[in-house]
Amino acid sequence: MTQAVPTVPLLINGEWVESRTTVWRDVVNPATQEVLARVPFATAEEVAQAVSSGQRAFKTWRKTPIGARARIFLKYQQLIRENMADLAATLTAEQGKTLLDAEGDVFRGLEVVEHAANIGSLQMGEFAQNVAGGVDTYSVLQPLGVCAGITPFNFPAMIPLWMFPMAIACGNTFVLKPSEQDPLVTVKLVKLALEAGIPAGVLNVVHGGEDVVNALCDHPDIRAVSFVGSSHVGKHVYQRATLAGKRAQCMMGAKNHAVVLPDANKEQTLNQLLGAGFGAAGQRCMAASVAVLVGEARAWLPELVEKAAALSVGAGKDNPDLGPVISCAAKERVLALVAKGLEQGATLALDGRNVQVDGYPKGNFIAPTILSGVKPGMAVYDQEIFGPVLIVVEADTLDEAIDLVNANPNGNGTALFTQSGAAARKFQEDIDVGQVGINVPIPVPVPLFSFTGSRGSKLGDLGPYGKQVVLFYTQTQTITQRWFADAASVGQVNTTISLK
């Protein structure tokens, strides 16, 4: 007898409920094509119920003492730690990344949860006494109301944890739409959040595709939308949400360059290039997908290829160096881009297209692939490949490399490998990219700071975690007050603007 495939529930007003939709999608293990679960595309009525639940809960949650909010996230971070192995295993099964990388996915989100527990310090306002005669002014950071988050497939633990903990810690309520491709670990994280003490209605979960995204952007009771994903969808979300009068922040696509100077430590640099280019099968918006070899560093290409060829490929649960890409469609897209690159004149320095993994004949595997001789204007340079493909570009000087990076429309991240402090300082000052690494290939900051992608990689002024996101999820209210000691001090009518 065939075992029934489980369905993924919605969370509305603190209750896990079965969707009444007629539209479902399979959640598939990308290493085996096994169907793990079926996820519903929520109806318009169910999305409205989730938002309404958040709206009702906001009335009391916004007035919950800040210390009580903080203690929930102290408990939550402990629950995540205790369940790390189970969360990582679920993530690996549905997304494909290795177990070690899956734990890293959870851990980087955990750091934001820990930061949310410090909300008492982060949400402090300002005070000034006697700004005029007997007049004081102070400001408070008030929550907005119901906020929404739309998350991508490549970090199904980290990015949801970027969003709802900080929003809720600030006193808002939240409607989360996980990726329909791998929602299972996200649902487990939400269950732990409820166990930690988040009240009914404060956190709600809906699933779906474009219709659900549009409903969240359009709903008049949602005050802010946070998005991470492709540039195409991000631009749509930003335009639709802001036209509806909402705050929006959209972290989108990238083409991150790692610039290598010949004075860099060769062994360390090559190892870091490979880790940043091929980790998570290249499915990171901060992947170092372009290696810019400057001057004599161009001679390092054969060693780069040799090291990449030694990386292992397999099912994530077996902890190889890289697992499969998320879907059959994703694999076909990556292979089509590689073919286009060759057609446009790139050289195939390492071919990983036909890799076979023992025991997993149906897996979406692509081994490390390197294209050299790449130039701007080629599809593999202009588009985000989002697979285990490293493209190699050459430059004669650091200035030429900087111009190359700055001419690219994206601005998520970049890195420089060098032992020269002067070169590093010049690079940092002249480069027009939000996140810069010096001998650090993926310069994603810890939550004490904020994710700061720029230009074509980001829409909205404020980043998705750190101090900036407190400003995103709050409205500054300024209060100016004067108290009179007695009736005699009231004075005369004053028709000027002065506070004297």
UniProtKB/TrEMBL annotation:
Matches recorded under Gene3D superfamilies: Aldehyde Dehydrogenase, Chain A, domain 1, Aldehyde Dehydrogenase, Chain A, domain 2
Keyword check for Oxidoreductase: yes
Keyword vocabulary terms for this entry: NAD, Oxidoreductase
Keyword Cytoplasm attached: no
Enzyme Commission designation: 1.2.1.27
GO molecular function term, any single one: methylmalonate-semialdehyde dehydrogenase (acylating, NAD) activity
Span of domain Aldehyde dehydrogenase: 16-479
Protein family per UniProt: Belongs to the aldehyde dehydrogenase family.
Protein name: methylmalonate-semialdehyde dehydrogenase (CoA acylating)
